[in-house]
């Protein structure tokens, strides 16, 4: 089974870190590339600012969070 590497801003995934971080991310608040989510793959992800839960990073980060500085849910490690 191939490893999956996820972006912490949008949940996009690739099979290598270099393929992930060398592409632009529209959710990155700095307007740059995808950034590696350094936690483990989980059955459920929790927002570190408000506790909201979802089954994928993509679904988590696509929702607005009133407590987050960048207005999006951010996955806790």
Please summarize what this structure is:
This protein is mostly loops and 77 residues long.
Describe this structure as you would to a colleague.
The protein is mostly loops and 77 residues long. It is built from 2 helices and 4 strands. The two termini are 23 Å apart.
End-to-end span in angstroms?
A: 23 Å
Instruction: Provide the gyration radius in Å.
Output: 12 Å
- Count of helical stretches: 2
The secondary structure category is little secondary structure
User: Based on CA inertia axes, which overall geometry fits?
Assistant: globular
- Sheet with most strands: strand arrangement: 1-2
What fraction of residues sit in β-strands?
Answer: 5-15%
Low-pLDDT stretches are none
Instruction: Give a quick account of the main beta sheet: strands, pairing sense, barrel closure.
Output: 2 strands, antiparallel
Summarize the topology:
Layout: E1 5-6, E2 13-14, H1 17-21, E3 45-46, E4 53-54, H2 57-61
List keywords for this structure.
single chain; 77 residues; little secondary structure; two-stranded antiparallel sheet; 13% helix
């Amino acid at each position: 089974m191939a490893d999956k590497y996820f972006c912490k801003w949008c949940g996009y995934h690739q099979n290598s870190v270099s393929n992930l971080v060398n592409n632009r991310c529209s959710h990155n608040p700095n307007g740059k590339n995808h950034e590696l989510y350094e936690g483990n793959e989980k059955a459920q992800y929790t927002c570190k600012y408000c506790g909201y839960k979802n089954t994928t990073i993509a679904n988590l980060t696509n929702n607005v969070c009133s407590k987050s500085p960048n207005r999006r849910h951010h996955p806790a490690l």
